[in-house]
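Working notes for the structural subgroup meeting. M.R. asked for a predicted model of this chain before we commit to crystallization trials. I am recording the input and output together here so anyone reviewing the notebook later can reproduce the run.

Input as submitted:
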Amino acid sequence: MVLSDTDLDTLFRTARTPDRWSATPVSEDTLTALYGLLSLGPTSGNCQPGRFVFLQSPDSRERLRPALSAGNVDRVMTAPLTVIVAHDPLFFDKMNRLNDLPDVRSWFAADVALSEETALRNGTLAGAYLIMAARALGLDVLPMSGFDSFMVEDSFLAAQGWRANFLVSLGYADGVPEHPRAPRLGFDEACMVL
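Returned structure, recorded in token form:
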């Protein structure tokens, strides 16, 4: 089945990074639905290393403020919430529950380089699924990488041992962006068919 043009517009063609946020909050039901959708995206061996910290309260976003680059402070502080997209380096501890191959946990537990690469790659995929699921649920999305990951990990993730990857502010845009969409590379510049 091919999605309708309206669906493709929502997910890609007319979706834009917001300039301003409305004050409309994102409900807990929406966050639950969001995770329900993104968790269905494929990962290697169903490893599911993606972890998500939803910073919704003003206090939690104030804790994030010192870790933000100057250009991202207003974007985060005015958003209804910001998600720390992270991954669990010890994702393999749950693998025997997620994959029925015999002793699949040992594949990763015995190879640090493989487990780190798998966690980062598949945790990043989960972050991309979050972006698409958010758009599908009518949310506007602002992904960003301008932050101090060590500060974020110390402040929010140390107890779990998770690693920060990127941030995504979520909410409902206040108006349409004032600037035109930035250019994209053409197929011949970015793709090869062999």
